[in-house]
């Protein structure tokens, strides 16, 4: 080796020593701090969890569909189980129970995390949400936006598949295993479906373009002239009861099974309406921050005590009209309101 290059081995050894020293500083006893796992804030998980749907069933059963799994209480919310192992912690939405048998319950499930491996689709329960079975895969039916139990049998389910456009209204008569399209909708997209209690095959759909009615399970539709703009929500308390709608026009009511609607209140635009079973003139309206009550069929409204949080789902107790359940999001929480106490109380255990 020439003298002019004799310094190269020394330089190479010096660089290697620096490199190894740097690696040892990264792999020694004090590694970089890892990103901490999100902490649970209550029985429903972390503060990031939020509610998509809620059901109140007979015998003090509550079912909650959240972004990270399905939860159930069998004792008025005193304690909860979940997320349900059959569905794991997949995102659940669009809970519905049959008008013919409330023990028949349906829910949609899909992935909310890239690590999830559960099957995306429609799940069914015949025991009020105690156990669940996959009824149909989204890969076979198309991805459903909303599901509603039908009014002809406990195994009837209506659904809406947005990718199918006007033919996206589909129906199953075997508990969600198979779906067919009975006929084209008058709209390209809809926001919701309301089967009429005690009126087999009679339904209403509502959309940004108004509402429509069918008397033959969706084979033929008649667009309602009562609406000239968006309808956000519809509700009714039972067979033969008035049907209420909230939309751009205000609050409307139908006394003829949804054939026509009359404007009854113009000073509110509620994002959701809820009826109390067996109380035809009692309805609740919800905004993002407040809940209102009407006892005269929507003609006048009074606010309920304000509760802090992001208000999501509002459902009445099916056996006690004076009690109302409310879900909150970020984090997920459940509250109840009793008319006698005129106050909200928490149904959310810490763990």
List its traits:
351 residues, mainly beta, Methylamine Dehydrogenase, Chain H, four-stranded antiparallel β-sheet, 2 helices, disordered N terminus, Sortilin N-terminal domain-containing protein, WD40/YVTN_repeat-like_dom_sf, VPS10-sortilin, signal
Description:
There is one protein chain. The protein is mainly beta and 351 residues long. Among the domains are: 38-181, Methylamine Dehydrogenase, Chain H, CATH 2.130.10; 186-273 and 290-301. 7% of the residues lie in helices and 39% in strands. It is built from 2 helices and 28 strands. The strands form 8 sheets. Strands 6-7-8-9 form a 4-stranded antiparallel β-sheet. The protein has a 4-stranded antiparallel β-sheet with strand order 13-14-15-16, with no helix packed on it. Strands 17-18-19-20 form a 4-stranded antiparallel β-sheet, with no helix packed on it. Strand 17 and strand 18 form a beta hairpin. The protein is globular and about 55 Å long. The model is unreliable at 1-30 (pLDDT under 50).
């Amino acid at each position: 080796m020439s003298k002019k290059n004799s310094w190269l081995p020394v330089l190479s050894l010096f660089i290697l020593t620096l490199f190894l020293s740097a690696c040892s500083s990264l792999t020694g006893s004090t590694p970089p701090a890892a990103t901490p796992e999100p902490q649970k804030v209550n029985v429903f998980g972390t503060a990031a969890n939020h509610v998509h749907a809620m059901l109140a069933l007979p015998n003090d059963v509550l079912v909650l569909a959240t972004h990270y799994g399905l939860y159930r209480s069998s004792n008025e919310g005193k304690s909860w189980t979940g997320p349900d192992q059959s569905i794991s912690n997949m995102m659940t939405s669009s809970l519905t129970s049959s008008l013919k048998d409330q023990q028949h319950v349906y829910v949609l499930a899909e992935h909310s995390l890239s690590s999830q491996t559960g099957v995306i689709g429609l799940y069914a329960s015949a025991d009020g949400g105690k156990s669940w079975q996959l009824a149909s895969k989204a890969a076979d039916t198309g991805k459903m936006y909303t599901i509603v139990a039908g009014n002809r049998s406990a195994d009837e389910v209506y659904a809406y598949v947005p990718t199918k456009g006007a033919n996206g209204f589909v129906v199953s008569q075997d508990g969600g295993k198979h779906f067919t399209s009975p006929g084209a909708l008058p709209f390209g997209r809809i926001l919701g479906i309301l089967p009429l209690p005690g009126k087999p095959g009679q339904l209403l759909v509502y959309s940004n373009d108004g509402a429509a009615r069918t008397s033959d399970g969706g084979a033929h539709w008649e667009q309602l002239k009562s609406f000239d703009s968006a309808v956000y929500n519809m509700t009714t308390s039972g067979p033969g009861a008035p049907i209420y709608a909230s939309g751009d026009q205000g609050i409307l009511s139908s006394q003829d099974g949804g054939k026509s609607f009359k404007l009854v209140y113009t000073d509110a635009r509620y994002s959701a309406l809820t009826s109390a079973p067996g109380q035809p003139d009692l309805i609740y309206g919800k905004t993002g921050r407040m809940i209102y009550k009407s006892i005269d069929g929507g003609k006048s409204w009074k606010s309920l005590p304000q509760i802090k949080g992001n208000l999501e789902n509002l459902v009445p107790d099916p056996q006690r009209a004076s009690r109302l359940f409310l879900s909150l999001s970020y984090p997920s929480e459940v509250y109840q309101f009793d008319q006698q106490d005129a106050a909200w109380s928490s149904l959310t255990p810490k763990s």
